[in-house]
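Suppose you are handed only two things: the residues of a chain and a line of SMILES describing flavin-adenine dinucleotide. What would the bound structure be? This form records exactly that question and the answer produced for it, so the two can be stored side by side and reused later without any lookup.

QUESTION INPUTS
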Amino acid sequence: MTDAAAHPALDALAERLGNRLVRPGDPRWDAARSPWNLAIDQRPAAVATPGDVDDLRALVAAARADGIQVAVQPSGHGASGTLDGTLLVRTAAFDLVDVDVDGRTARIGAGARMGLVLDSLAGTGLVAMSGSSGVVNATAFTLGGGHSWFARSFGFGSSSLRAVELLTADGRHRWLRDADDPELLWAIRGAGGAFGVVTAIEVDLHPAPVLTGGRIVFAGTDAAAVFRATVAAGRTAPDTLALHAGAVRIPDVPQAPAELRGTTIVSVETVELGASAAGRAALDAIRSAGTVVLDAVGPIDALALTAIAEEPTDPSPGFGWSALADLDEDSVTRLVETWESSEGQAIMGLAFRVLGGALAAPPARPGIAGAVRETHIVSGHAMGLPDRAEPAERAFGALDAALGVAASDRTLGTFLAPGVGYSGAYAESDVARAARVKATVDPEGRFRGNRDFT
Ligand SMILES: Cc1cc2nc3c(=O)[nH]c(=O)nc-3n(C[C@H](O)[C@H](O)[C@H](O)COP(=O)(O)OP(=O)(O)OC[C@H]3O[C@@H](n4cnc5c(N)ncnc54)[C@H](O)[C@@H]3O)c2cc1C
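ANSWER OUTPUT
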């Protein structure tokens, strides 16, 4: 446990921030320090919710005076358990979203969640690079690379990052574009969490006059057939079509809807930028692989992007595993067999997303989140209860083994497991290059992200 008395500068900061600085011993402490992923028990020195840039400057100065690091963690979906002893910053107050419809750009405050960004785009015919969840922070998603429904059209979310408004350790606060510091922007596009405090980002918006999307739910026994059909359809589907497939065992716990407890849900989630015959054909081929129990694919608006996958919106404990892979019908069958085996029962959900398209090409804007050769990202998740950790680890290992040669030893930046550094997602030479940028921009190592440059 951190000793509050050992941080005199934080005492002075508390006078400035009042109840926006929470320290051990405060009744709000456990709620303040908890990340969204409740399986991670992080113990920072204090948690601050600054109201403006002057607060942030004061906060960085206090951290320097007390010899501790500053970590920005808007909500902690990606919490890694590596932020003990830091001054943890929540960016909720920086929540302005400013849309330039004609210029097709948006300035997004560092506290804004993806749902707020999409809400701001209602009626514009434009979309931002959104993933499947509306409660994920838009800045964190983008700085981490960010796999969006539109990734096959436009690459990673970071490829649509035009500029960052950054407070650096030297106290400067400014907008930075490629022309100002190309190396920093390269590193920020995928490994962006430890160069300073980003107070806002500017991103490209993409025309989306027509959006089609939704979820197709199949009988619980159809996982293998539906997964094989999705892999096959993904080979020829247009780049404008996103395909995610998943199977979830709904646990028999009070938090789950009573009618679903103990059942298995097999589903394909999809979004198409447009409404093409090729997109429809791809989905029809998948539909014919199983027994469709619900088909909710149709015209949608941008805000609906965050509801398709029906992901949890409240904090919950979770363990996860993921790997980039080149799935084919055989490897995906082995994956499902493993998930259905007695060892695999420790894993609640098994899922994959079809990559390719723009993700396989050099990014539109240079970034460490660059071209990805693999055709799929596979993931597994388990309930993050302490007694489930070991069985889940064993089962994740079994999934990895089931992939065999289809698997790579990397994943995407936003899918990295707790405790794994950036080399779990990027080439070691690129991680070393990003570490050199870090040493230049933050020579004292004042800032710490969820991920290390290892
Ligand atoms: C239900 C769910 C759905 C998801 N869907 C997707 C998806 O579709 N695609 C995808 O790519 N990922 C997805 N993710 C993963 C998610 O994008 C990552 O966990 C990511 O870390 C963002 O989570 P967060 O908003 O909680 O950020 P946090 O975990 O709070 O922050 C992540 C890191 O970003 C950096 N950071 C954030 N804000 C700032 C800032 N202002 N200044 C400096 N650094 C900053 C810091 O290093 C911080 O540690 C999903 C996660 C969940 C739980």
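WHAT STANDS OUT: The chain has a mean pLDDT of 95. The first strand starts at residue 21 and ends at 22.
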